[in-house]
Amino acid sequence: MAALVLVGRDPAEGKLEPSTLSDLLRESNLIIEGRVIRASLDEGGKEGEAVLRIQHVYVGDYRRETISIRWSGAEHDQRISDIGESRLLFLKKVSEGSYTGAQYGRSYWPITYEMESRRAVTIYVYPMTHIDIDIPGVLKEASVFFPDLPSKQNPVTVPVVFIDDILRLLPGNDSKARP
């Protein structure tokens, strides 16, 4: 049950360069879904680590039950701090047994649910907006619940990417929906 440690990028590389969804999918050797079971920040609140229990492996071969993600606190590092939250992780192999985000600052997509259908979505907000959704029909609008808003302001209609739409784009997943 050893966790694989993902080390964040060097802060000197901390720019969000233009990219497309097609690029992100092509650059990902491992695409997995996990739920945060532990998260911690250093005393300064910048550097941290999260451990996710693997729920699904969509692309690649990953046989461990958990994965650890570390971040350095650089400006665009994605922090994962909410225990119980699910994430879709787009990863690339950097050495034997070690992965990093396929694209700096945009590789760990938070998962929430569309109100009516309960389909899994990621809301298209920063840092996801640094990815041009270049595949027609993938970027949509949906109603989602924001727990930090008063109930009378919920649900909110926002741009989203449905997770099962992403999964259909993966090799061998032409007609598969999210399990």
Give the topology, please.
Blueprint: E1 4-6, E2 19-20, H1 21-27, E3 30-41, E4 48-59, E5 66-71, E6 86-95, E7 98-101, E8 108-113, E9 120-123, E10 131-132, E11 139-144, E12 156-162, H2 163-168
Parallel strand pairs: 1-5, 2-10
Antiparallel strand pairs: 3-4, 3-6, 4-5, 6-7, 6-8, 8-9, 9-12, 11-12
Describe the structure.
The protein is mostly beta strands and 179 residues long. The protein has one domain (4-168): OB fold (Dihydrolipoamide Acetyltransferase, E2P), CATH 2.40.50. It is built from 2 helices and 12 strands. It has helices at 21-27, 163-168; strands at residues 4-6, 19-20, 30-41, 48-59, 66-71, 86-95, 98-101, 108-113, 120-123, 131-132, 139-144, 156-162. The strands form 2 sheets. Strands 1, 3, 4, 5, 6, 7, 8, 9, 11 and 12 form a 10-stranded mixed beta sheet that branches. The chain has a two-stranded parallel ribbon with strand order 2-10. A hairpin with a 6-residue loop joins strand 4 and strand 5 (66-71). The radius of gyration is 16 Å and the shape is globular.
Q: Give the averaged pLDDT, no decimals.
A: 84
CATH topology: OB fold (Dihydrolipoamide Acetyltransferase, E2P)
Taking all Cα atoms into account, the compactness measure Rg is 16 Å
Tell me the domain tally. 1
Task: Give the topology string: H per helix, E per strand.
Answer: EEHEEEEEEEEEEH
Shape descriptor: globular
Low-pLDDT residue spans: none
* The CATH top-level class label: Mainly Beta
Query: How many angstroms does the end-to-end distance come to?
Result: 23 Å
Structural class: mainly beta
**What percent of the residues sit in helical stretches (DSSP H or I)?**
under 10%
- Biggest sheet overview: 10 strands, mixed
Number of helices: 2
Number of DSSP strand runs: 12
**Strand portion:** 35-45%
CATH architecture title? Beta Barrel
